[in-house]
Write a structure and sequence with these properties.
Layout: H1 5-16, H2 22-32, H3 36-49, H4 54-66, H5 70-83, H6 88-101, H7 104-118, H8 122-135, H9 151-154, H10 160-163, H11 204-216, H12 226-248
Length: about 260
């Protein structure tokens, strides 16, 4: 590769005076020309005379990165950041060291610090976004789940027999004069009794309807848990009736 006139001039100056601060410019020009080994040699030689020349040490660190000598690069860049924590070039170069090692969380933190220093650097912002998509992917969208209603929420089972016109245990009332239980009032007609009976043995719905009415005339079961058994029987009959409505709805003749 042919050296540029700028590199030739700086090289003559450094050769004439090894302690010249022109070494920093020469090392940077060599790095940009991708002469990384020469840049490292020039920077190390000049830093022997000027160890506090931070920009030259950053150039050394960046040249070492290109040569994949990452541990050496990190050491040089940390020396810079120890003296100048807000050095943008050193922060950015250290982030690249982490990224090349595959240490993405550390790289992201370092790139974010560099972006805070650079403010509106589009390249840094793009780098931060790219690493964030790997290190901190957005959570998957939460699917809205509509809760299924429970049977307990749809019916009040304590009053269901009354709602359906079923039989309940009568509440005794006492006559004020005799203090004897008064005659119970006649029960209200049930929902089944309020429907006109169809005398059609060929219609399954009519047969079920008749069976339900006949079951209402049967005596209430006695003994413990009688109310519970009566309610269970009534609910079973109701489910059978509703099932017949669903199955035979299309088969019923027009009224």
């Amino acid at each position: 590769m042919t050296d540029s006139p700028r590199i030739l001039e700086l090289r003559r100056r450094v050769q004439a005076d090894p302690a010249s601060i022109a070494f920093a410019q020469l090392a940077e020009e060599c790095r940009r020309a991708e002469s990384f080994d020469e840049a490292v040699g020039i920077a190390r030689a000049g830093l022997q005379y000027h160890p506090d020349y931070l920009s030259a040490r950053v150039t050394l660190g960046r040249a070492l990165i290109e040569l994949e000598r990452l541990d050496e690069a990190e050491s040089e860049l940390r020396l810079v950041l120890k003296s100048a924590p807000d050095n943008l070039a050193a922060n950015r170069a250290l982030a690249e060291v982490f990224q090349r090692r595959g240490q993405l969380p550390e790289a992201l933190a370092q790139y974010r610090k560099a972006l805070d220093l650079a403010k509106f650097d589009p390249d840094l912002a793009q780098q931060v976004t790219r690493i964030e998509s790997v290190v901190e992917p957005p959570p998957p969208p939460v699917e809205s789940v509509v809760p299924q209603p429970r049977v307990e929420d749809l019916f009040d089972f304590d009053t269901l027999p009354e709602q359906l016109g079923g039989r309940t245990q009568p509440q005794l009332k006492f006559d004020a004069g005799t203090h004897m239980p008064a005659a119970p009032a006649a029960p209200a007609p049930s929902a089944i009794e309020s429907v006109t009976l169809r005398e059609d043995d060929a219609d399954p719905f009519s047969v079920l309807e008749r069976q339900l009415r006949e079951s209402e005339s049967e005596p209430m079961p006695a003994g413990p848990n009688a109310d519970e058994r009566a309610e269970q029987q009534m609910l079973a009959e109701l489910e059978e009736w509703l099932g017949a409505i669903s199955i035979h709805r299309d088969q019923r003749p027009n009224a």
